[in-house]
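debug: dumping io for the single-chain case to check the tokenizer round-trip. Nothing else runs in this session.
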Amino acid sequence: MPEITVRQPRAQGTVRLRVRDSARGSELAALRQSGSLRALFPRCDAKNLSVVLTNTSGGVTGGDRFFTEITADQVAVLTLTNQAAERAYRAAPSEIGRIENRLHVKSGARINWL
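debug: decoded output
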């Protein structure tokens, strides 16, 4: 009888967001989120947009894939953080969990990653 290998479902999530400067301060210009990765926007200083990235799957293990792409247009200011330290779980020897982050900071802009 052949051995049956069962693959567990894996978490995937993407957040792409762009902030721009406006007369009121930094504001959200574009947002795309999917899977178990979410961007939350707590009320904070009007001149500085704050974003909390949240992984609703509860951690990262082999086979999981998370991707963030953050862009701050000219003069925009963004403070970015995670909900908590990301928990990493043991994976099968052939599986790798991946977290990829891309930050684009235009002239005069700033991203504070906490």
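debug: round-trip ok. The chain has a mean pLDDT of 89.
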